[in-house]
Amino acid sequence: MAETKEQFEPKIIGFLCNWCTGAASDLAGTTRAQYPPNVHPIRVMCSGTVDPVYMIKALLSGADSVMMGGCHPGDCHYVSGNYKARRRVAMLKQIFKSLGLDDNRVWARWISASEGPEFAKFMNQITEETRKQGPSSMANDWAI
Amino acid sequence: MTKSVTLSVKDGKIREAVNSFLKELFNKKTIDAMLVPLAHPAGTNVVQALVTKAVFVDKADVFAPVMPVNSARLIQSITRLTTVDRKTAVVLRPCEMRALIELAKLKQVQLDKLVLIGIDCPGAYAVNNYPKFAAEKKSDDFVKAGFQWAEDTMLRTGCQICEYPYPLTADITIGMLGLDPSKQILIQANSAQGEEILSKAGMSLEIDSDLAQKRQTAITKFAGEIKERRKEFFEKTKQEIGGIEKLSKVFAQCIKCQNCRQACPVCYCRECFFISPTFELDADRYLRQAEKKGALRMPSDTLLFHLTRMNHMGNSCVGCGACEEACPNDIPLLKIFQLAGSEVQELFSYVPGRSLEESLPATAFKDKEFEQIGEK
Question: How many domains does one find in chain A?
Fold first, then answer.
């Protein structure tokens, strides 16, 4: 049976950089901030290492949304990785838009290591927004 | 300011006039070799050949409406690890030239031993359609019929919506746009090297000739028209392929042979990510993937392959249509890649192959840009 929107629990894949957003998730945990468990984190050393292929792969194999978490622009541990990541996300979103795919399922956030509450807030936001969008049609197509 | 020579065409024999010009470059020893399309003895194709003896230039047929491969990749081979001090002239269509510049930015070719000769391109037919044309007509007939990108429906899709049928970065341009090529052709020098070679070949260059200005006017007029035509074309394409359902339908016939990638002039990786160990999965991984949806299409990751290629190469897509030509199942790849490619290029105000100075969008960044991405 298809899930109704009320029952629907979105599955979200998050690529979190080791130095900022990943550390913020740690802080959110140690300070016991409450947030939904829908984002499955994948720790990467830098948002600049994430090839769009991994984000697309997640969306085509079951994820309802995908997010990239990095340091604030200008604060990258490796100087410019997040600037490059930002361009890649911009490209990915544009290509999705051009092809009529749902680019609102691609997210990015810059959250620093000290912003635990921000991280928890964003986890709430992305989960609720994705829940509103409902299950992704790309995620459930076997024939692609 | 333009510097050019007018080449007069005797008895409407365009091919002969162009060939004698090219041969002169050899005879005056301005170059040592030339990569140029020669008519295949079979009469059913015109293929690029690396020529070292001037006599072979008689077989050249640079305006024949067929482009079996995008030659930018061939130049990757002929400039690899080059140490010898020999100049090779390469006669290229505008899309090949643009792909070459992209490859130079990717450090896949060396331009310093090359002389770039570009042509105003009247378009090409699919390799499969060329024998039909060649049985009845000659390239001169094709050129005399004029530039008919919008009318000639047998032209490849890429040619019908080509934005730049004139070279953007050549040393020497063989120009015809806006002219009557059965009478005159314009040979224009666009760089110091181009000027040097033309004067060495005994040609005296004219500054801002009437013919050069006439061609420039035609280019400006064309540039305005093509924008509208492309806009219309992309709107139509969005209706045809937009959304996951339609996209899935388009790629239903994909067998993931990856010929499109092989034929693409700008897809340059020695080993593609998609044939790397990342995609050599264990049996267990396949089963787990299948379990997620209950069924897994095999070969797997068809759409992922195309979407990833768009992300990796979209910025450099010159719209040559080699991908579509190479597809054994006639998937309309060109329109899909040009749609996504041109819109992503617009995002960065980037024109692939316009200039060596422009850095590839994926390798550069600005402090203040795309500020809506990543912010609350």
Answer: 1
Using CA atoms, how far apart are residues B201 and B4, in angstroms rounded to an integer?
13
Q: Answer yes or no: is the ipTM higher than 0.85.
A: yes
Full residue range of the structural domain in which residue B191 is found? 3-229
Closest A-chain CA to B294: A142
Instruction: Say if the Cβ atoms of A110 and B374 lie within 8 Å.
Output: yes
> Does residue A88 fall inside a structural domain?
yes
pLDDT of residue A49: 96
* Residue B160 shares a structural domain with residue B282: no
Q: What is the pTM of this model?
A: 0.94
Measuring CA to CA, which residue among B351, B362, B359, B327 is closest to residue B94? B351
Say if B375 falls within a structural domain.
no
Residue A23 belongs to domain with CATH number: 3.40.50
Average pLDDT over residues B228-251: 96
Share in percent of chain A as helix, strand, coil (round to 5): 40, 15, 40
Single-letter residue type at B295? A
Question: What is the per-residue pLDDT across B147-174, written as a single tens digit (0 to 9) for each?
Answer: 888 888 899 999 999 999 999 999 999 9
Rounded-to-10 torsion of CA B189, B191, B192, B193: -80
Report CB contact under 8 Å: B340, A95. yes
| Residue pairs spanning A and B at CB distance below 8 A | 129
Tell me the chain B residues in contact with residue A90 when contact means C-beta distances shorter than 8 Å: 347, 370, 373
C-beta atoms of A91 and B303 within 8 A: no
What is the least distance, in Å, from the CA of A91 to any CA of chain B? 6
Q: What is the mean pLDDT of each run of 10 residues along chain A (144 residues)?
A: 68 98 97 96 97 97 96 96 96 97 97 97 97 93 92
- pLDDT number for residue A2: 53
**Last-in-domain residue among B229, B258, B273:** B229
Residue B238 within any structural domain of the chain: no
Q: Which two tokens stand for residue A17?
A: 């950089």
Range of the domain at A26: 12-133
Which residues of chain B have a CB within 8 Å of the CB of A81? Answer: none
